[in-house]
Q: What sequence folds into this?
């Protein structure tokens, strides 16, 4: 009998051990279940190739500081398999190292294998060689494509398994994604799209990773796939089965930037409002896209016309610095939701109306846990509501979180963290001593590698080995042509699906034309000078990143596809489209790899004149410089140039283009539905002026910078600058806290005195607040660094802040508004805005 008792006890103990040490990840209709526990998870997208490897650990640690549980990243097929069967997982492509650093920080990973990613990345993440696989058609029920996709997906999964990185093996990966935002294309492909989607799901599940798979924006994702939402708001979203959790895989922190377009920013109050609204509707995973956007180094940007900067107005900026108040306000949101986690995941929910635009969502469990979300959906009006016998003030377009169903610890519209104003400042690097080399345009035809009767599609010729393709032909002009004897000059027209084109007649630039992100097709139309006899017409077609989305995007044509014609000759229109054209891929400087320190001396360089701006097109420049002092992030100010590429010690910084932004840069309000046309900035200035240079790329001395300029500019004004926090500001809105009558312990919702303000300012370690640059209690206007008084202002604003804050490293205080004296504008909701100076503590 004892033996059987021992066996039973041993069996139960073994079962308990297996259950409590099980690493499998599952889910139910509430949430992801990790090690038997439901979790509400906050995640952030950080893409490993969009930053230098030496930045990874700091970015991950900051993500953890921001209250994240998960780091989300795509897997970039075109980086890892640049040629069929040839793989690269070294340096910036070291995916395993990146995941290990996430694991070291104690965070989870969502690995979005795709392998299609979109992501404003060149060719949507697909390697260009994939386009040339015989019989292939992307992202549909096509055997060559499915074979290649399955091979790469299995390669990544097997690598993760070998490194024991799935949570089922004790690793940090708790989710994986197959495909990406496919539903729109699914409908375009019809039955073939539906078959492909089901095949992709089955293929992924059969890999037996021990963690769930997701398909974002795929409402008909088959079991056990979790379909998820991407967008600016996802409170409307529900999964396609009641036993699947509600996930938001891309909460867009703003929007990407295109050359010639404005900078997009999304107020953190609205982003927090969207996230809180999603959580109260039953959401249990939110991923910020992006949490750190980073940089599209080299020629990785796709779209086309996507800027080299992929900052995305993310909580951690392109340079790895914390962006306040976005970072801090979201961290407070995460902390508040975590306090509600048990009630949210175990309780029953009930909705209550508090007014026309006001609602309460209450979660309560049998164990006594209670959490409430009080919402005001009105765009402009503050609401005073009564909930459970208490009075609460709800700002417009906001949600208050009450983790005990009584006390408000967070409101999405009340930002109680400081703002950091970041600027670019000079470094101690002296002016560059430039040398120059010009492309030899006259020899283009002699260097051509092929000729063809007619115009060829660009990508079929270049295979994306270069942005540039030369089209060259000849035109014979009779000596009696009237344009040579004082008549009107003829007009050359050339239609391109570009993205840009320079036209040279007999080696001289005749003009340039450009497409846009929304329409890359354009037509060059300029009068040209011809000479008697043979004339060389050379068209330099330029790509600004390959297409990255839409059905059959691999079939989209680019380049000078015509018609090309000369109008106004004595014999009428001369169609050049079907003539014999010679083709040359790339530039001579590219062929010689002039951006590399080992090849830069391959040509004869000459000093750049210091007296005038250079207007010579297709010009290379080089200089050397020592690394600047300090550890601040660095950037190149390229505002004196026009369009081209930059290399530092052989590393391609990226494409630059200083075209001015055109948009609708008007006032920005946090309230109301956000879209990219709202909250635009930078109109009338270069879309991108500064270009990130990671410090890890630099040596202590003799760093090589090489610039290729397509049009013309003044390299003498290029400078290396540092990214620094130059201003620290705070904004505090007055509010009326909930108080209880001390005798009855009942809430009457009225203050004994009046409203209060929460001041929150702090300097970096080793610094203190030495002065107040600006302070205004009333209706101040402007952003940090450019604040100004409004029509309502208390004259005591500055003296109050000086008394409360100067001399301290941290200024955290809750003060009654009466401290500012007589109300400067009764019956008007007021706020305090302040900017302070921090300086090092003397040692």
A:
């Amino acid at each position: 009998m004892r033996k059987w008792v021992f066996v039973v006890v041993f069996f139960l103990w073994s079962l308990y051990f297996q259950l409590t040490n099980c690493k499998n990840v599952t889910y139910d209709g509430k949430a992801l279940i990790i090690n038997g526990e439901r979790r509400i998870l906050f995640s952030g997208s950080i893409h490993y190739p969009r930053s230098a490897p030496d930045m990874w650990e700091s970015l991950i640690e900051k993500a953890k500081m921001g209250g994240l549980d998960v780091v989300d990243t795509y897997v970039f097929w075109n980086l890892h398999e640049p040629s069929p069967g040839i793989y690269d997982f070294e340096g910036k492509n070291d995916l395993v190292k990146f995941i290990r650093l996430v694991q070291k920080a104690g965070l989870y990973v969502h690995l979005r294998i795709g392998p299609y990613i979109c992501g404003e990345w060149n060719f949507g993440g697909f390697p260009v060689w994939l386009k040339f696989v015989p019989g292939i058609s992307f992202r549909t029920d096509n055997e060559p494509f499915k074979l290649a996709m399955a091979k790469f997906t299995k390669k990544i999964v097997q690598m993760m398994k070998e490194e024991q990185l799935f949570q089922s093996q004790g690793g940090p990966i708790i989710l994986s994604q197959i495909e990406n935002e496919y539903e729109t294309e699914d409908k375009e492909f019809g039955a073939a799209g539906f078959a492909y989607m089901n095949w992709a799901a089955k293929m992924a599940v059969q890999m037996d990773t021990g963690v769930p798979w997701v398909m974002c924006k795929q409402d008909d994702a088959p079991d056990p796939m979790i379909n998820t939402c991407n967008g600016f708001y996802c409170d409307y979203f529900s999964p396609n089965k009641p036993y699947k959790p509600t996930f938001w895989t891309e909460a867009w922190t703003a929007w990407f930037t295109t050359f010639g377009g404005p900078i997009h920013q999304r107020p953190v109050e609205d982003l927090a409002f969207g996230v809180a609204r999603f959580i109260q509707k039953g959401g249990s995973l939110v991923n910020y896209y992006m949490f750190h956007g980073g940089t599209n180094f080299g020629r990785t940007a796709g779209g086309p016309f996507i800027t080299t900067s992929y900052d995305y107005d993310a909580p951690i900026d392109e340079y790895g610095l914390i962006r306040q108040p976005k970072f801090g306000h979201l961290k407070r949101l995460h902390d508040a939701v975590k306090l509600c986690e048990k009630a949210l995941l175990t309780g029953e929910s009930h909705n209550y109306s508090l007014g026309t635009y006001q609602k309460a969502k209450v979660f309560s469990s049998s164990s006594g846990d209670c959490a409430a979300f009080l919402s005001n959906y009105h765009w402009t009006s503050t609401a005073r509501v009564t909930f459970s016998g208490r009075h609460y003030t709800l700002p417009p377009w906001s949600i208050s979180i009450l983790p005990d169903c009584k006390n408000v610890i967070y409101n999405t519209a009340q930002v109680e963290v400081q703002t950091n104003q970041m600027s670019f400042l000079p470094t101690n690097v002296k002016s560059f001593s430039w040398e120059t080399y010009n492309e030899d345009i006259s020899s283009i035809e002699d260097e051509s590698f092929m000729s063809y009767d007619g115009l060829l599609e660009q990508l079929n010729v270049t295979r994306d080995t270069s942005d540039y393709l030369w089209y060259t032909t000849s035109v014979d002009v009779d000596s009696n042509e009237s344009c040579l004897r004082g008549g009107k000059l003829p007009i050359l027209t050339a239609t391109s699906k570009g993205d840009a084109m320079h036209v040279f007649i007999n080696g001289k630039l005749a003009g340039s034309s450009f497409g846009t992100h929304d329409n890359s097709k354009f037509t060059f139309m300029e009068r040209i000078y011809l000479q008697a006899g043979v004339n060389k017409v050379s068209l330099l077609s330029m790509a600004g990143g390959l297409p990255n989305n839409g059905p059959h995007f691999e079939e989209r044509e680019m380049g000078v596809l015509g018609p090309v014609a000369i109008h106004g000759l004595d014999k009428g229109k001369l169609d050049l489209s079907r003539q014999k054209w010679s083709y040359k891929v790339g530039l001579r400087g590219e062929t010689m790899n002039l951006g590399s320190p080992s090849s830069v001396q391959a040509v004869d360089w000459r000093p750049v004149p210091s007296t005038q701006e250079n207007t010579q097109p297709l010009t290379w420049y080089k200089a050397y410089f020592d690394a600047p002092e300090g550890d601040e992030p660095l950037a190149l100010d390229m505002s004196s140039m026009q369009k081209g590429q930059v290399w530092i010690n052989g590393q391609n910084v990226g494409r630059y283009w200083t075209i001015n932004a055109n948009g609708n840069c008007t006032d920005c309000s946090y309230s109301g539905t956000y879209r990219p046309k709202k909250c635009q900035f930078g109109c009338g200035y270069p879309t991108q002026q500064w270009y990130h240079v990671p410090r890890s790329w630099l040596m202590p001395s003799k760093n090589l910078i090489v610039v290729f300029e397509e049009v013309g500019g003044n390299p003498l004004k290029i400078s290396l600058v540092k990214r620094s926090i130059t201003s620290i500001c705070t904004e505090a809105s007055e509010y009326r806290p909930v108080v209880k009558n001390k005798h009855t312990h009942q809430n009457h919702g009225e203050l004994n005195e009046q409203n209060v303000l929460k001041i929150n300012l702090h300097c970096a370690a080793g610094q203190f607040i030495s002065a107040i640059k600006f302070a205004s209690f009333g209706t101040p206007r402007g952003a940090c660094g450019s604040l100004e008084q409004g029509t309502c202002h208390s004259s005591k604003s500055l003296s109050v802040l000086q008394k409360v804050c100067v001399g301290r490293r941290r200024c955290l205080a809750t003060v009654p508004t009466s401290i500012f004296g007589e109300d400067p504008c009764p019956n008007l909701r007021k706020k305090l805005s302040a900017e302070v100076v921090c300086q090092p503590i003397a040692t």
The longest helix spans residues 143-162. The chain has four domains: 2-321, 430-437+591-625+633-717, 448-582, 725-840. The chain has 13 helices and 44 strands. The mean pLDDT is 92.
